[in-house]
Amino acid sequence: MEKKNVWEKYQGMKQQEVFDFGEGYKSFLSACKTERECVKEFVLQAQAAGYRDLHAVLKEGGSIASGDKLYAVNMDKSLILFVIGRKRLTEGMNILGAHIDSPRLDIKQNPLYEDTQMALLDTHYYGGVKKYQWVALPLAIHGVVVKKDGTVIEVNVGEKEDDPVFGISDLLVHLSKDQMEKKAAKVIEGENLDLLVGSMPAVCNEEDKEKAKDTVKANILKLLQEQYQIEEDDFLSAELEVVPAGKARDYGFDRSMVMGYGHDDRVCAYASFKAMLEAGSCEKTTACLLVDKEEIGSVGATGMDSKYFEYMVKELLHATGEDSPVAFARTMMASQMLSTDVNAAFDPLFPEVMEKRNCSYMGRGIVFSKYTGRGGKGGSNDANPEYIAKLRRIFDDNDISFQMAELGKVDQGGGGTIAFILAAYGMQVIDSGVPVLNMHAPWEIISKADLYETKQGYRVFLKEA
Ligand code: MN
Ligand code: MN
User: Fold this and answer.
1) Would you state the pLDDT for residue 213?
2) What is the pTM of this model?
3) How remote is the CA of residue 305 from the centroid of ligand 1, in Å?
4) How much distance in Å is there from the Cα of 294 to the middle of ligand 2?
5) Going by C-beta distance under 8 Å and a sequence separation of 6 or more, which residues neighbour residue 367?
6) Rounded mean pLDDT, 113-125
7) What is the pLDDT at residue 210?
């Protein structure tokens, strides 16, 4: 049952293709570190590939026909792509679904303060993070500030060569006697994840100096006003995300891997998106869901649990003349989905959390997970063997390398994905994605071979499942 290393089947041109695909991915991952940045980039690429804005098409009362490529943006933070198939919608869709949010630190709504002439921004962490991993490393700020008049100011500081970076301090080892005794969860406290952003007082005349307080903070506010037209109150209506600063890089002497921020789950988002573009128009209608908020439970208007996808499918049915609750139910029940999310790669430094016959390995291809969840499979989508058998056949016929894995040993922990949300419509769903090392750390690792193989697999699924 042991699966072969994927690299062994790539030679010459093929290996070059795998590396070239990795280059495109690295550029994407380096530039797109928030859900908004991902949506923006994917929309640009989709438009270039002939996709039209579904909301605009509907507004103009335009008709929708087989072969049409459409995209629908939800609040700039999630995105759906559709390619209308030759078969009727009620015969089911082939759906890929990834998430484009990643663990990070969000800046609070009243964030800026000064202490001992240092200016700091208070944050609230987003998603599952080991807090001690987010200190003493260069961080960047990405996001938007929305002014009262509706103007949206985009912020991206810390990525360009000459940009400043930010950071959260850790205690020097010399004075860490007490800290070293603490549990890992308490070594760095969530409330102490505050970003140092300045240390220089505003210059003021002698008279003002007497009464001036918080002059370092005042100086930062002055700079924010000059450079971004942001006032202190504007933080109230801002969504600013603190992320690791810097680009995705080749990893290892052999450059077989990529180190980057947010492989979970942008690696599957990228593979899904590229598979959509490559697959073109298929027998069945195909869809690619790129959603927000998975890391905090798929909640909210832009998470998978929102009704947005349902509404868009209903719009398509309406526009193709099959508008009824029954038609919607039939469409969903006849559909098949790959929930495209990452899995934990086996780590030789931490073998104790894995069960070697049922875990995923870097370089052995796309990972299927029949179930995720915790404890007795709690909260998981348990995929049907009939569906798995069909996928095995399609993947084997197309020489796509895949492996089957759980997320870690029984009772060692666990995790979830968006799979169960789509399964609730009565469609076939299974988790499938790329193995990741260091998952949820500021810098995660994937194999270029797994990325390529996953993209190939998703394309085959769209065309043949
Ligand atoms: Mn994920
Ligand atoms: Mn995750």
Assistant:
1) 85
2) 0.97
3) 15
4) 7
5) 343, 360, 402, 403, 404, 405, 432, 433, 434, 435
6) 98
7) 65
Positions of E strands within 100-252: 104-115, 118-126, 139-146, 152-157, 194-198, 238-244, 249-251
Q: Which ligand is nearest to the CA of 296?
A: 2
pLDDT above 90 for 385: yes
Q: Three-state DSSP class for 373?
A: strand
The CA distances from residue 153 to 85, 100, 189, 229, in Å, are 39, 21, 31, 8
Instruction: Give the chain's length.
Output: 465
The yes/no answer on whether domain 104-244 falls in CATH 2.30.250.10 is: yes
User: What are all long-range contacts of 147-150, with beta carbons under 8 Å and residues at least 24 apart?
Assistant: 147/229, 147/234, 147/237, 148/237
Q: Report how far ligand 1's centroid is from the alpha carbon of 400 (Å).
A: 22
Tell me the ligand closest to 434's alpha carbon: 1
Angle at which helices 448-464 and 13-31 cross, to 10°: 90
- Give the relative orientation of helices 385-397 and 448-464 as an angle to the nearest 10 degrees: 110
Task: Report residue 154 CA to chain centroid gap.
Answer: 20
Report domain extents, the chain: 6-102+261-464, 104-244
**Whether residue 2 has pLDDT greater than 80:** no
Dist. CA 161 → ligand 2 center (Å): 29
CATH number of 6-102+261-464: 3.40.630.10
Reduce the DSSP state of residue 314 to 3 states and report it.
Answer: helix
Q: Is 116 left (phi over 0), alpha (psi -120 to 50) or beta?
A: left
Q: Do domains 6-102+261-464 and 104-244 have the same CATH topology?
A: no
Distance 98 CA to ligand 1 centre (A): 8
User: What are the angstrom distances between the C-alpha of 404 and each of 332, 341, 367, 448?
Assistant: 26, 14, 6, 19
Residue 346 φ/ψ, nearest 5 degrees: -60, 135
In this predicted structure, the answer to whether residue 211 has a pLDDT above a threshold of 80 is no
What CA–CA distances, in Å, run from 253 to 17, 250, 256, 316, 341?
A: 19, 9, 8, 49, 27
What confidence category does residue 463 fall into, taking pLDDT thresholds of 50, 70 and 90?
Answer: very high
Q: How far is the CA of 223 from the centre of ligand 1 (A)?
A: 37
Q: Are 319 and 79 in contact (CB under 8 A)?
A: no
Mean pLDDT along residues 350-360: 96
